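Entry — protein

Goal — fold tokens:
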Amino acid sequence: MKALVTGASSGIGYDICIELYKRGVEIVAVGRNKQRLKDLQSKIGCEIVSTDLSKRENCLKLYEDVKNVDILINNAGFGDVGFFTETDLEKELLMIDTNITAMHILAKLYLKDMTKNNFGYILNTASIASFLTGPFMATYYSTKAYVLKLTQAIGYEIKKQKKNVYIGALCPGPVATGFDSVAGVTFSLKAISSEKVAHIAVKKMFNKKATIIPTFSIKLGCLAGKILPSRVVCFFTYKSQKKKKS
């Protein structure tokens, strides 16, 4: 099998590449940090593509250049923190283009091929944020809600079409990656390793688990987001994000 993994130059994406390699999967690793991609290549002998997926033309070119993909891991993404009136607009638009638009384009194009071949796996990286409302990280939480809801809707369509294609959402909580430095936050909960998240993600993807939540504590957080009133969720998420920033 052949896998295309975005956001592969660090963190979860990097370690998913290693997990898939252990299972004998051919890897095409995509990211912006070329040196980190070369480091990964030296470990597992994968093909690497250094590109900025916040640009739509790069997403389309990636699809044209990389064909016959059996597994798509849509992992590229980043966050930001602050009051909506004070955060940088250009950074937020880049976030939307990376977290949403790139994921949408690649999922749609590769899913068409997979449904035609009646085989394939797509895993979209969402977050515990998908289940919550996130004042002080409003844009990031909203992008991840989009990822989760789109994935769930497509999954239902595939089921109705009776296609042998999997699509699922990975919803981790705090993970020890470069995300926190880009977003400008310090996690209040203990972060788990990206290696652990990657191992669970790959295992449950091949078991065709629709929504993958790596730890029990994060499952509780997701459940709270479903059953608590939105004003209560906002109170706790705002308090948490404000604490991270300070």
Remarks:
- Residues 89-117 form the longest helix (29 residues).
- The chain has nine helices and nine strands.
